[in-house]
Write a structure and sequence with these properties.
Structural class: alpha/beta
Radius of gyration: 19 Å
Helix content: 40-55%
Strand content: 15-25%
CATH topology of the largest domain: Nucleotidyltransferase, domain 5
Distance between the termini: 28 Å
Mean pLDDT: 91
Order of helices and strands: HEEHHHEEEEHEHEHH
Number of helices: 8
Shape: globular
Number of domains: 2
Length: 265
């Protein structure tokens, strides 16, 4: 199926966006010893359609490639870490476009508890007593312009401080330039010293203002805005994934779709 012959959807990549993302995809010219017949652009458009609309794999419209083909590529790229690498590459390009160094020196960390579903409830599901949410928790770290750097999905019952340790160690594997991290009071206490010892960075706690009324808190609003962006992708308004690693991939895919749109604008 030629991507130019089928019906176009709002979630599809434009020519300019495809030109940005195509060089970052693995070379899948040959598949299992034979030529790759399905255009990768159609595969990407189908994955973005699912991510944006919340469509189930088996309900993918018939003008896309067969859902089995789309899922095969999605899962193969997940296992290879492709979604994370594309997000990282596009994030660097966007930082340069914004006149910043490609690697950030500061970041903001936060978490978001998300209601689960019968699908996600079968594995790594829990109850966040503070937020009164049963499901999973997304631990995220972003740069100072809101670009997603790393995501970790756990049961909602996992404490923010515990999730932060695994998240930051995960970040340090491929990014060593972050030296300053802002967080809310949920990350205070022993984690401050742990970050200094194990991450070689400074964790600064941004406390709520005592004054009455709504106040935009320094730095914290950046990560909260990113979490709001993520929730606009309907696959992510709840956690529909059976496996936590698929939940993480869907967050990266939403970030990729946003970044490629910014770079093409």
């Amino acid at each position: 199926m030629d991507g130019n012959d089928r019906k176009r959807y709002p979630s599809d990549l434009s020519d300019a966006e495809w030109n940005i993302i195509e060089p970052l995809l693995p070379d899948d010219k040959y598949k299992l010893g034979g030529p790759q017949k399905t255009p990768l652009r159609d595969i990407m458009d189908a994955i973005f359609y699912i991510n944006r609309t919340g469509c189930q794999w088996r309900y993918l419209p018939n003008d896309f490639p067969p859902w089995q083909t789309v899922y095969y590529h999605y899962d193969k790229w997940r296992r290879r870490g492709v979604w994370q690498r594309i997000n990282e590459a596009l994030g660097k390009k966007n930082r340069v476009k914004e006149g910043r160094n490609e690697n950030p020196s500061a970041a903001i960390i936060d978490s978001q508890s998300v209601k689960g579903t019968p699908e996600s409830g079968a594995e790594s599901s829990g109850y966040d007593a503070g937020k009164k949410v049963k499901g999973r928790k997304r631990h995220v770290i972003v740069d100072t312009i809101g670009t997603l750097l790393e995501v970790l999905v756990t049961a909602a019952s996992v404490q923010d401080r515990d999730g932060a340790k695994e998240l930051l160690l995960k970040l340090r594997e491929h990014l060593q330039t972050v030296l300053l991290i802002w967080a809310d009071s949920a990350y205070s206490g022993a984690l401050v010293d742990w970050v200094k010892e194990h991450i070689r960075a400074t964790l600064l706690i941004v406390k709520r203002l005592k004054a009455a009324g709504f106040h935009v808190l320094p730095r914290r609003w950046v990560v909260e805005r990113t979490l709001a962006w993520i929730n606009r992708f309907r696959r992510l308004c709840k956690d529909y994934e059976r496996k936590a690693y698929n939940a993480e991939s869907m967050v990266y895919i939403a970030s990729i779709r946003r970044l490629v749109a910014l770079l093409a604008s």
